[in-house]
TrEMBL record:
FAD binds at M133, Q161, K185, G186, A187, K199, T224, H225. This is proline dehydrogenase. Keywords: FAD, Flavoprotein, Nucleotide-binding, Oxidoreductase, Proline metabolism. It catalyses: L-proline + a quinone = (S)-1-pyrroline-5-carboxylate + a quinol + H(+). It comes from Thalassobacillus cyri. Residues 47-298 form the Proline dehydrogenase domain. Binds 1 FAD per subunit.
Length: 305
């Protein structure tokens, strides 16, 4: 039953009619639990609320699928507007972006040009920008672009994925750049040629890379909802006298909110990942596909505005 529901949500996430209807009618079906809003204003309100509750935020713009230079340029404009809004509203928030949304798959030159505009603005507004890690085919390109930009810009970081065999080496290489890294387990379906097929190995490697990166002394965003990995981080930090401001916990909006508050109350920095934008429906369906138990929220909220 769970597998069937998961498959249904995966299919719905790609259904063009459902996506069009979702754009027309705005956030529905309890999507607010996972998505900050269908536009920038709603996203700003959501960040404000988090900030007033002692949480940090990061905004991720869910734009149109980018298959042309024009749509990559449009997404870039949306991201520039988001940086302006973060500055204008004095939000404790940064920007998290997918390089494919600004043209990585069209050409590295297109992507670099758009990224430089974003990073110029990030310097001007003193706002951090994180390059997310996508599927394996874009991994090396993302790291190359990150390294090139890191020599010119301060406010930039990227992500590494524990499921990849290469990641321990990448972390040590990125240590030469004093990289601010988000550490994740990894979200894409990768082949066993490049990634650990067993979850237990991914969980083990996740803890290993957390230890390596923290001991390297670079800033870490520990992006997980996994109690075991979180307690491991705290243990490593305490044993090695790593101050609480050298790392932060990051979680998705709407996932384990009680744990987010608990960590905040223990004095840890907690940053919430807030996706927003027109393309909210696909993101929402993917969260349900990941965990069909979240369907309870949909049922409760179907008739609410
Ligand atoms: P899991 O072992 O999957 O889950 C641990 C526990 O967390 C579960 O037992 C459950 O209690 C809870 N949980 C997990 N997911 C859910 C859910 N959907 N609903 C309710 N409870 C849940 N991946 C990338 O590949 N690239 C990225 O750039 C990237 N950025 C991310 C940014 C943030 C802030 C976060 C939190 C994740 C990001 N991810 C990214 C996704 C990540 O790789 C994992 O796929 C995802 O976080 C699930 O793994 P987990 O660490 O939470 O552990």
């Amino acid at each position: 039953m769970e597998a069937l529901l998961s498959k249904t949500f995966q299919n719905l996430s790609k259904n063009s009619i459902a996506n069009k209807m979702a754009k027309k009618y705005g956030l529905r079906f309890g999507a607010k639990r996972f998505v900050a809003g269908s536009n920038l204003e709603q996203a700003v309100d959501c960040v404000r609320e988090l900030n007033s509750n002692g949480m940090l935020a990061m905004l991720n713009y869910l734009g149109e699928f980018t298959n042309s230079k024009t749509s990559a340029a449009e997404t870039t404009e949306d991201l520039l507007r988001t940086l302006d809004a973060i500055k204008d509203h004095q939000l404790n928030c940064y920007l998290s972006i997918k390089l494919t949304s600004i043209g990585l798959e069209i050409g590295e030159d297109v992507c670099s040009e758009n990224l430089q505009r974003i990073l110029d603005k990030s310097e001007a507004t003193d706002t951090f920008v994180r390059l997310e890690m996508e599927d394996y085919s874009n991994c090396q390109k993302t790291l190359d672009i990150f390294k090139e930009m890191k020599t010119k810009y301060r406010n930039i970081g990227t992500v590494v994925q524990a499921y990849l065999y290469r990641t321990e080496n990448d972390i040590n290489d990125l240590n030469n750049y004093n990289a601010n890294l988000r550490l994740v387990k990894g979200a894409y379906n990768e082949s066993s040629e490049v990634a650990y097929p067993n979850k237990a190995d991914v969980d083990k490697n996740y803890k290993n890379i957390i230890t390596t990166h923290l001991l390297n002394g670079n800033y870490a965003g520990i992006a997980t909802h996994d109690d075991d990995a979180i307690r491991h981080t705290i243990r490593v930090a305490e044993r090695n006298e790593i101050p609480k401001n050298n790392f932060e916990f990051q979680m998705l909006h709407g996932i384990r909110p009680e744990l987010q508050k608990q960590l905040r109350d223990e004095g840890y920095k907690v940053r919430v990942y807030l996706p927003f934008g027109n393309e909210w429906f696909g993101y929402f369906m993917r969260r349900l596909a990941e965990r069909p138990e979240n369907l309870t929220f949909v049922v409760k909220n179907t008739f609410k505005k």
